[in-house]
Specification:
heterodimer, A: alpha+beta, five-stranded antiparallel β-sheet, four-stranded antiparallel β-sheet, B: alpha+beta, five-stranded mixed β-sheet, 24 helices, 23% strand, disordered C terminus
Chain lengths: 293, 945
């Protein structure tokens, strides 16, 4: 049995959602497919009847300012996110994170929506969007009508690899981010190992607002530090109102370790190493965002 | 759907589950685009879709609707159209028709096996379209995931930069700056492009999977999937009944011999009912079907029941008396012994004795072209096997035995090979394809996917090496005892030979009076281990070169002087009792490398290897590390090391040199072309090379042991000289002169004032009822078996390397900044190819140290996808400086000896020694683990002496 029978190039949200709903056998939406197609090819996912390609949806392929927000379409290839001046100006951490996903060829097809929809706890794009407190735009198909709603990104994740999206009637269409204001800065870092699967041992994104010598506001996301992407709220709370001096960061590290759950992944990293690197990444990522703010 | 491919509008409908690469290769016949992994890791399948490079192996064909697709076949056209030329103009040469990138890849020697080149070209083309003036960092970023296992990364980088300049200026591509031999001849020792390079950059090169015959079936093998068991029951009836399956064969259906093996015939072609499964990759049945998909589906319908036995997962356990025996002769394949002097007396005479145990892991060759065999019956009842093989005559022998046929009823037609590195010496699909073609009377293709390739083919041996080293306080080595356990896995393959080399090289390129080395080559239930570039010496060099640094530290001696003091020199006696009478360039290699280290980072002997903080980044520490090595050329150990080559003169004045020796990317075809061109004083374009065909080429023996330049080089040299002499005799007869007066100049035979085109000489010889060709069977100087004290090998190559590493003391991450290599290769016949070997060897050695780890747990392979087994990319490729040391060996062709392996051997210990020097963490096992660096960091208290 072929791993798919029909490949439908959807031209609109209505088209995509109606085909997804009506397809007779198992059906899935596919964006860049850089993970899904491998899962199908290597037998980690059952064959499907229909794949609905959403990479040409006009509703999900724009990068533009909408009112007081930046909209980044879920189906924009990552290479376009990386090169986007708008994203660079308003969400530098996202540019850095998107530039780390896959390799150059993969980024020409892979999308931010795919990175997020997989609901992995340490996807680089996801972690950056969580630190940037993105809102996710979701299109639902209810009785033949496309309806659009927005939710905070963290509400999307139920567990490792599990998102709240209904696979046959919902699509992720884009992300809303706050526009840059004076004192804002963000950055993304990760640690890899040269052997084995190219998945981050640990990654971290920081967005902060700096007023002179203190952090006015800060958002920190990291993974894998639990079943879903983690917002380090206690660490954020501690750092708010302080200057990120070495001794302050040292104290922040201890708080970060207390609110994170690090585990050992065979052939990748021990929990101890992750703990150690969480401290290193915190200092480096806060500094990167601070210096840009 | 509609799309354009290379500018041509195409209307074609996608099939279910069809990827773009299948559409291009199978339905449009554009086989220039290669599939290396089929899992988005290697980049070989890169094509342009609307100008962006994408991976065609995971790009649904249906998605190409309305798109503009370009493949390597269209690259030259794209450029010609832009310049307003027609690419078909017959007035311009083949090379001139190419895109500047393609020309630069050829000129710079970036093309080796050629398999990754289409992907490299398309990725770099897309880069130059957007960024006409890319920096080195831009190139590394763009090519990060376009892998090259020949690791021509430095040449790829330089070629792209040269092409960028040529495209900007509109001028010709500027040739590379590569040192020629110190004593170049007319042809030998100078820079030449590979004879197969044009086809390798324009997409025309045919590898086995690019072949298609009418009516061809697709085959797959059913693998056991359990490491150790007895096959109790096998039912293939459901698979046979599947629509589209043509035949399913089991062990019962093998007409001839059931076992094969390069040295020991212990490897079952298929495991029969009641027989033992010894590793997960053992096959129990083979299927031929109308399509790949049907063949794969049939595998799932084969029912096999196993009686599971305990897994023998390491060589130390395998030797224990209570362990179950895997083979009739037990689990000990061979106990290998080296003895010199009196080891106990030696330790008594020593001032210090150090002892340490080292571990090395399995390593996969990860050649980018997975194994593929195509077999077909000819109308006259012979079997033809098309395969990229390092030993075509051995394949013929094994296929004939399995069919129960005389060998001359089988023809092996060697194909271009996308890398081998020792991993294409054993039988993989050759016999299976032939059995299926025999049973179905139809052509059969058996292609491994990357997953199967990783599971099934032999690896580099995992080893445990204990070294006990006795020395005087002044550093003079007195006694070295080594004990090695080598894991040869389920079958012998070349295990005995590989581990013999590990053992004889386990005391390093040093002279000491007392040696005792013991190696236990053990069978286990792991995938078999066999030949791999370095042939066992990679492992023992890591152990002994680490030990030498430990000794230097212990005695507070300069590690350079310690090595110089003990180094093998002309007049030395090796641990196997061989008197070295010539061609030992080790000291010059060391001196060249150290001089360059001091030029880059000025230092004294006391400070040269010190840890240095990186200014502005105090968490980064840099240091140099040093290692030296030697490696035999040729089979040695008493084996008859012979090779045949034939040279023929044609009526058009061209020559052809023929031998079955294998071209796997290393450049033998260039070497043979240069030798013949040199002997006839001809431009290289007048010499063709034909290799790897058992009907058309004489037996050149296995392409292994760095032997071909020497052995087949000598065969070609002597065949050329014999033919030249015959030509001279014919001319001399005709003109009634002394044959010595006949000269060969620029494609002409010159005698007195006559100038005779070579083509005419061919006619003159034919008129004498003789053929204008000469066959020469070269037999290398005799060697003696281990333990008999004579010459174990007829030549050795020597090398020194220094690696500068940068260690991140916060994360433990290691970056190799630069490597300086000096190799004594006797004589550099083909300097451009030599550079490719050196740079590729260094990067492969870097992979062995830092990125590669083939993980087997209780007989099961964890690293069963390329995604889990990482080979170095251009991002990790260091700056490499290569010095060529030429201490000729008298019997070698123009003085040359082996190159292919020595270039890679010292890299790993140079890197691990450098890590110790930088941060005080000593690695006695591989690969380097950044966690351990953080855990064991000896900063800031660590102060190297």
């Amino acid at each position: 049995m072929p791993i798919w029978n029909n490949y439908h190039l959807a031209v609109s949200l209505q088209d995509a959602l109606s085909v997804l709903e009506r397809a007779s056998g198992p059906a899935l939406c596919v964006a860049g497919g850089t993970d899904l197609l491998l899962d199908l090819q290597q037998g980690r996912h059952e064959p499907v009847d229909t794949l609905v390609d959403v990479t040409s949806l006009p509703e999900a392929t724009a990068i533009e300012i909408r009112g007081s927000e930046l909209f980044v379409g879920a189906c924009v290839p990552l290479s376009k996110v990386v090169k986007s001046e708008l994203v660079l100006n308003h969400a530098q951490a996202l540019v850095e994170a998107a530039g780390l996903i896959g390799g150059p060829q993969v980024r020409n097809t892979a999308t931010l929506g795919g990175n997020v929809a997989h609901a992995l706890p340490a996807a680089d794009g996801t972690i950056a969007l969580v630190a940037l407190a993105a809102e996710v735009e979701i299109a639902s198909y209810i009785e033949g009508v496309v309806q659009i709603r927005r939710i905070p990104i963290l509400d999307l994740f139920i567990g490792p690899g599990r998102s709240a999206l209904k696979p046959r009637s919902e699509l992720l269409t884009g992300f809303y981010l706050k526009l840059h204001k004076p004192g804002d800065g963000s950055g993304h870092k990760r640690i890899m190992r040269p052997q084995g699967v190219a998945i981050a041992i640990l990654n971290m994104s920081v967005w902060l607002n700096r007023q002179r010598d203190v952090i006015q506001n800060i958002q920190i996301a990291l993974g894998p530090a639990g079943p879903t992407p983690l917002r380090a709220r206690k660490t954020e709370e501690f750092l708010t109102g302080r200057e990120p001096l070495p001794e302050v960061l040292k104290q922040a590290q201890a708080i970060l370790l207390a609110e994170s759950q690090f585990r050992t992944s065979p052939h990748r990293a021990t929990a101890e190493y992750r703990k150690h690197m969480a401290g290193v990444l915190l200092a480096e990522t806060v500094k990167s965002a601070w210096d840009r703010a | 759907m509609n799309l354009t491919v290379n500018g041509n509008p195409i209307q074609i409908d996608p099939k279910p589950a069809e990827m773009l690469v299948d559409l291009l290769r199978e339905r449009l016949g554009l086989t220039g685009t290669k599939v290396g992994c089929n899992e988005s890791e290697c980049g070989a399948c890169t094509v342009l879709v609307n100008k962006e490079p994408v991976l065609a192996c995971t790009f649904p064909a249906a998605k190409a609707h309305g798109k503009d697709v370009w493949t390597v076949e269209g690259l030259a056209k794209l450029y010609a159209e832009r310049k307003g030329q027609s690419s078909d103009e017959s007035t311009i040469s083949e090379v001139a028709k190419l895109h500047p990138l393609q020309q630069a890849f050829i000129l710079y020697g970036a093309v080796q096996c050629g398999f990754c080149i289409p992907g490299q070209l398309m990725t770099s083309f897309a880069l130059l379209e957007k960024n006409p003036d890319p920096s080195e960092a831009d190139i590394r970023y763009a090519l990060k995931d376009t892998l090259c296992r020949c690791a021509g990364y430095p040449t790829i980088l330089r070629a792209i930069q040269a092409a960028a300049v040529a495209m900007k200026t509109g001028e010709e591509v500027v040739p590379p700056d590569v040192l020629e031999s110190q004593s170049p001849m007319d042809v030998i020792g100078r820079l030449h492009a590979r004879p197969d390079s044009v086809e390798k950059v324009n997409g025309a090169a045919i590898y086995t999977d690019d072949l298609h015959f009418p009516g061809m079936l697709e085959a797959r093998a059913k693998r056991a999937g359990v490491p150790h068991a007895i096959l109790k029951r096998l039912d293939v009836s459901r698979a046979r009944a599947l629509n589209g399956v043509v035949v399913v064969l089991t062990a019962e259906d093998i007409p001839g011999e059931h076992y094969h093996g390069l040295v020991t015939k212990d490897w079952p072609t298929m495991v029969g009912v009641g027989e033992r499964v010894r590793y997960i990759g053992d096959s129990v049945a083979i299927v031929a079907a109308e399509t790949k998909e049907i063949a794969a589906a049939a595998l799932d319908l084969i029912e096999a029941e196993y009686e599971i036995h305990p897994v023998i997962s390491n060589p130390v356990d395998a030797l224990k008396p209570e362990t179950e025996l895997l083979h009739a002769n037990g689990n000990l394949l061979k106990h290998i012994k080296v003895r010199k002097g009196d080891i106990e007396a030696g330790f008594e005479q020593s001032d210090v004795v150090l002892e340490h145990t080292f571990q090395t892991a399995f390593i996969d060759h990860a050649f980018l072209e997975p194994e593929c065999s195509v077999a077909r019956l000819t109308p006259d009842g012979r079997m033809e096997v098309y395969v990229g093989s390092q030993i075509p005559y051995s394949d013929r022998h094994e296929v004939a035995r399995a069919l129960g046929w005389p060998e001359d009823r089988v023809r092996v037609v060697g194909q271009l090979m996308g890398g081998g590195f020792g991993g294409k010496e054993d039988i993989m699909g050759q016999i299976h394809a032939a059995l299926l073609a025999h049973a179905t009377k139809r052509p059969v293709k058996l292609l491994f996917d990357r997953h199967e390739s990783l599971l099934v083919h032999p690896k580099r041996h995992a080893t445990q090496i204990r070294i006990k080293m006795g020395a005087r306080n002044d550093g003079t080595l007195v006694a070295v005892q080594t004990e090695l356990f080598g894991d040869t896995g389920a079958y012998a393959s070349l295990g005995e030979k590989v581990l013999t080399r590990s053992t004889t090289h386990s005391t390093g390129p040093y002279e000491m009076p007392h040696v005792k080395a013991d190696c236990y080559a053990m069978y286990t239930n792991n995938p078999p281990a066999g030949a791999f570039r370095g042939f066992g010496v990679t492992q023992s060099a890591f152990a002994i070169e680490t030990m030498m640094d430990m000794l230097a530290e212990h005695l507070n001696l300069d590690r350079v002087e310690l090595r110089r003091k003990n180094a093998l020199k002309v007049g030395s006696i090796t641990n196997t009792g061989q008197h070295l009478n010539e061609s030992v360039g080790l000291l010059e290699c060391i001196d060249k490398v150290i001089a360059e280290v001091d030029r880059i980072t000025p230092a004294t002997a006391e400070t040269r290897f010190n840890s240095r903080p990186v200014p502005g980044a105090e968490h980064l520490r840099r240091a140099w590390g040093l290692a030296v090595s030697f490696k035999n050329t040729g089979l040695g150990g008493g084996a008859n090391d012979k090779s045949g080559a034939e040279v023929e003169l044609y009526a058009d004045g061209t020559l052809e040199v023929r031998t079955s020796s294998a071209e796997l990317g290393q450049g033998l075809v260039t070497v043979l072309q240069l030798i013949v061109a040199q002997e006839f004083n001809l431009p290289t374009s007048r010499v063709r090379v034909l290799v790897m065909d058992t009907d058309l080429t004489p037996d050149g023996g296995p392409t292994t042991a760095s032997r071909q330049t020497y052995v087949t080089g000598n065969a070609a040299l002597n065949a050329a000289r014999t033919l030249r002499q015959a030509m001279a005799n014919t001319i001399a007869e005709k003109f009634d002169v002394d044959p010595a007066k006949v000269k060969f100049v620029e494609g002409l035979a010159v005698v007195e004032n006559q100038r005779i085109p070579l083509g005419e000489v061919a006619g003159m010889i034919r008129a004498e009822n003789r053929e204008p060709r000469a066959l020469y069977e070269y037999l290398a100087p005799a060697t003696s078996p281990l333990g008999t004290g004579g010459n174990m090998h007829f030549a050795y190559s020597f090398a020194a390397q220094a690696a500068e590493v940068e260690v991140n003391t916060l994360s433990g991450e290691v970056r190799v900044v630069r490597v300086i290599a000096a190799n004594d290769v006797g004589k550099a016949l083909n300097p451009l190819g030599l550079q490719g070997q050196v740079e590729g060897g260094v990067v492969m050695g870097l992979g062995n140290a830092l990125t590669e780890h083939f993980i087997v747990e209780e007989g099961k392979v964890f690293t069963d996808r390329l995604a889990r087994y990482r080979i170095p990319s251009i991002v990790q490729s260091p700056e490499i400086t290569s010095f060529v040391v030429e201490h000729p060996t008298a019997e070698g062709p123009y003085g040359a000896k082996g190159v292919g392996e020595i270039v890679s051997i010292p890299t790993t210990p140079a890197i691990t020694n450098a890590i110790y020097n930088a941060v005080g963490v000593r690695f006695d096992h591989l690969p380097v683990d950044q966690e351990e660096i953080v855990k064991n960091l000896r900063l800031p208290i660590f102060e190297p002496h």
